[in-house]
Design a protein that fits this description.
The protein is mainly α. It has one domain: Farnesyl Diphosphate Synthase. It has 14 helices and two strands; from the N terminus they run ααααββαααααααααα. β1 (about 95) and β2 (about 95-100) form a beta hairpin. The two termini are about 30 Å apart.
Length: about 300
């Protein structure tokens, strides 16, 4: 099996995720709600990033990252369930399906998110393929990326920006935390497990920062340019919530230009890293293909 193919890594992750979410003690309705959001067709960019970094170091290392990749997807999925709640973005659709609270009710949706968040760290603690020092490093990094210094901090900034508009730098800071932090963790986790050197870790963090911002700019643009059939969500939702977005701050063309800048910077980092290390970091560039806009096809 060639683990230097992103689709292969995605398929491996899906099989592992399916095997790991068959609980014996969890109330059936709770696991149904958890699996409903876990298995509803996400792109799996974060776990694939993590596994790709390991595959680049050595294909034999990929299996060592599977539980960490699952933990990361659990955190991401919990955040989406809670983001969709009426008290947050109040969304009815996620990836073309009814959001978790629309399907199971608000109470169970909140608890499904709580369970995913908590169970994520159990996956890290129980990983027999990693030594204790590696586990502690991963727990430390994931808690920072997902908590009050990272994703949650960005979510707070996003809510506050609905009432108090921010400038471009302020918006980038919000999304560096809300969106970028988990992407950076994916790359850092692969580096930690794979034993990458300090300069590689730094380059991967910078790639994650540019990719995270590009991903959010693309998301904002798709809310304007995309259709419900393409995005799987109700479009024009950001405007209805008076959110601060890149198109609202920079205009449509300005946001497209900002996207191009971030994608170019991310690509350059991978090119440099591949040259310096002699390893095929360019395979991570395939993830940038997800940031294509409809008008560019």
């Amino acid at each position: 099996m060639n683990f230097l193919e992103l689709d292969t890594l995605r398929q491996l992750f899906e099989r592992s995720l399916d095997q790991q979410t068959r609980y014996h003690l969890t109330p059936p309705r709770l696991i149904e709600a958890m699996r409903y959001s876990l298995k509803n067709g996400g792109k799996r960019l974060r776990p694939v990033m993590l596994l790709a970094v390991l595959a680049i170091q050595s294909e034999d290392l990929v299996k060592c990252g599977l539980k960490t990749a699952i933990a990361l997807e659990y955190i991401h999925t919990y955040s989406l369930i809670h983001d969709d709640l009426p008290a947050m973005d109040n969304d009815d659709l996620r990836r073309g399906q009814a959001t978790n609270h629309k399907r199971f009710g608000e109470g169970l949706a909140i608890l499904a998110g709580d369970a995913l968040l908590t169970d994520a760290f159990q996956f890290l603690v129980s990983d027999d393929l990693l030594d204790d020092r590696t586990k502690l490093a991963l727990i430390d990094q994931l808690s920072q990326a997902s908590g009050s210094w990272g994703m949650v901090a960005g979510q707070v900034g996003d809510i506050e920006a609905e009432q108090t508009p921010v400038d471009y730098q302020g918006l980038k800071q919000i999304h560096d935390q809300k969106t970028g932090a988990l992407f950076r963790f994916a790359l850092e986790a692969g580096a930690i497990i794979g034993g990458a050197d300090a300069s590689t870790c730094q380059a991967l963090r910078q790639f994650g920062r540019h990719f995270g911002l590009a991903y959010q700019i693309h998301n904002d643009l798709m809310d304007v340019l995309g259709s419900q059939e393409v995005t799987g969500k109700v479009t024009q939702a950001d405007q209805a919530l008076t959110k601060s977005t890149y198109p609202s701050l920079l205009g449509l063309q300005g946001a497209k230009d900002a996207l191009a800048v971030e994608v170019s910077a991310a690509s350059q980092i991978l090119e440099n890293l591949a040259k310096e290390s002699g390893r095929p970091y360019q395979i991570l560039g395939g993830i940038l293909d997800y940031l294509t806009l409809p008008s560019a096809k």
